[in-house]
Amino acid sequence: MIKTVFTTPFNDQKPGTSGLRKKVKIFEQPNYLENFVQSLLDSLEGGAAGKTFILGGDGRYYNRQAIATVLKMAAANGVAKVIVGQGGILSTPAASNLIRKRKVDGGIVLSASHNPGGPNYDFGIKFNVGNGGPAPEKLTNAVYARSREIAEYKTLDADVPSLAILGTFDLAGMTVEIVDPVSDYAQLMEELFDFSAIRDLLGSGFRMRFDAMSAVTGPYALEIFEKRLGAPAGTVLNSKPLEDFGGHHPDPNIVHAKKLYEELMGSGAPDFGAASDGDGDRNLILGRGIFVNPSDSLAILAANAHLAPAYKNGIAGIARSMPTSRAADRVAEKRGIGMYETPTGWKFFGNLLDAGKVTICGEESAGTGSDHVREKDGLWAILLWLNILAVRKESVADIVNAHWAEFGRNYYARYDYEEVEQARADALMTELRAKLSTLKGQAIEGEMVSDADDFAYHDPIDGSVSENQGIRVLFESGSRIVFRLSGTGTSGATLRVYLERYEPAGGNHRQETQAALVKLVHAAEEIAGIARHTGRDAPSVIT
Ligand code: VG1
Ligand code: CO
Fold it and tell me: Known PANTHER family for this protein (predicted)?
């Protein structure tokens, strides 16, 4: 029942920051998903035959059809075994954990992460390698090259049995094992953190809220917070995963998790609020009356990680993506541990984690994680915060203020200009690149530019080089502006402008963020001509 289907290439299957992400409508074109999956299977070192993979997704619209397609194609290509999350569900960090725990060859995760879901919105597919982390560029480039020349794919002329019941079945000679998506992950969290201390905290009148945003973390959060940690029923909001995330944008920031944010800022607010994204790898951290900027959160978690059992002997080093604020650098410097700056996207952390150079990694986009898996991990970050709160017995605001007092504060914001016409966004970046060499030594908005470059990363472990990873403009004052185009959007281009200003220990840490950055906003306009190029006089989203 194996059949070979003739096909012709699509020219747009280049994986971005995190896999191939497109509108559902694009994925629904005949052969579109099949072409990509076959290109992937063809590009694996040693081929796909005989290998074992993990498979699951965030449950969004098209997840079920895609799981069936992948299973049939895996079987037809001679894959030995696929371990699937029950109902086709696995969060990204849970998939990473299973790849490592079961020592398999890799995993396929179906998700468009923080992008909205539903028939008119987004879908995605990404591949993780044997260490549990996102495929490195060498592999994603090979998949893209293959997708440009593909002429046929293999699949089965058969239906895939239901994935609703735990157990094992045979699919044309391939073993399919259906596992509980939550239990291995929940067990890992219990090994890393002091659950009894967190249970005591939650039993002592400390109130928390977690917003699953109708996405994949609902079942994980119910099991961990309400069942294992004894938080009262109702602690987890929007806990039922929905194919369209209830029409919301499952991106845990103060714009899209507005209701939670308002609750934490209001009177009678709980002590702690948190949220995660579509596939469970991002986190939002709120305290009563305070939003913790993700870059600050990375620094605070790194500075306090030793309070949790898994990190009690300290951390080896920290890595952050280039646009992430340099708050974590202050911690690394003071503690005398390694600090690494990588391009945007979790795939660049894998080598550093595997080599034991770093223990904790993070991105400004609300991704934080450690060497426990090879993905960013939303619930992990939230549990580490809870562990720290349980030990320090201080409020979130007090911990943040004490951190700034010791290390200084990196005022920080990201301005996103979404759905800009691609040609206009490209023109902006081209013009910017061309004037880089002239920026140095210029005074802009009264601040002297000390350096400007296009970030290139030289991986210290495997020597690979990744160029054109974003424009950095550094000022003598220590301020910085970064410009780059998003690699996860599905319509037009998204220009991201990252603004950062450092206020040392002893300085004024009580300013409102936007007010503190106002000069940099003007400088960014002067340097890049954002309004002139994009026709926008304000960003679509500020985070
Ligand atoms: C964005 C973020 C980046 C993150 C990526 C995937 O990429 O900026 O930090 O790693 O999304 O996150 P870009 O190229 O759009 O800036 V997720 O939760 O969507 O897997
Ligand atoms: Co995500």
Answer: PHOSPHOGLUCOMUTASE, PHOSPHOHEXOMUTASE FAMILY MEMBER
